Write the structure tokens for this entry.
Amino acid sequence: MSRIINVGAAQMGPIAPNESRASAVNRMMDLLRQAKSRGCDLVVFPEMALTTFFPRYYEEDIAKMDPFFEREMPGPETQPLFDAAAEADIAFYLGYCELTPDGHRFNTSILVDRGKIVGKYRKVHLPGHAEYDSRRPWQHLEKRYFEPGDLGWPVWRCKNGIMGMAICNDRRWPETFRVMSLKGVELVMLGYNTPDRNTSATEPNHLRMFHNHLVMQAGAYQNSCYVVGTAKAGVEDGCMLIGGSCIAQPSGEIVALASTLEDELITAPCDLDLAKMGKETVFNYAKHRRIEHYGIISSQTGVEIPEGI
Ligand code: CDT
């Protein structure tokens, strides 16, 4: 039986700080309609797809940011997206900010199929800082507003494949992909909001896009899986976010690439059986991994230069 699924990366242009959930959801429903007309089975929306990327703003009292969080999912404003996707028989990944009933805040994504949440992921690698930094033109306060995810990287069976999720900065860390690929992942979905310049150090701006693709293509190749990366792009309240949404196949090659900084759907037929070749040959983990040498990867966080070298 063929395991070709049509996948869409539904890039979104900027979301203004005062843009309503209803407006963002309408934009996503329009992208879903396009996805239906192009035969998609699965659509990946960006990180924080319902609101502006608010960690660029400092608030002393973090509860003042609660309007950017969802207390229920789906809620009244997101239910129409769930309904439209169920009607179209399209599964989707959605990034949003989660406020739990007991007061925990996470940068979260969900996988929804047939109107039901089949998977939830909470961002593990939170970038940025926790306190106001006067040297930056804008802040990146994810460490202030969110707790690190507490769910690890589960994988789920969906659309005949094994699927996993990650969020933005996670793509820069090989551990993200490797944990999921040790569970057989065949397709990793990932939404991002990436400013076009590094505000913590001096670095040529073009490297932002280079690194964006470098890490997703490497993740796809080294773990023999598809990677679907979807941006929120364009100028949000004066802060430029890169686009470059793409679908990378298990060879590491990009097979679909966005060309705008606006709402734009890119699609590719993804043959999940293509993931088999790498998993059975070069990256046959059972045959080739040498875990006796990998211990410090999970027992040591920072660099410790060995004594006497
Ligand atoms: N949202 C998010 O995680 N953004 C970061 C900004 C750069 S920090 C290295 C990212 O990884 O794209």
Q: What stands out?
A: The chain is about 25% helix and 25% strand. The pocket of 4-methylsulfanyl-2-ureido-butyric acid is lined by residues 47, 127, 168-169, 172, 192-194 (CB under 6 Å).
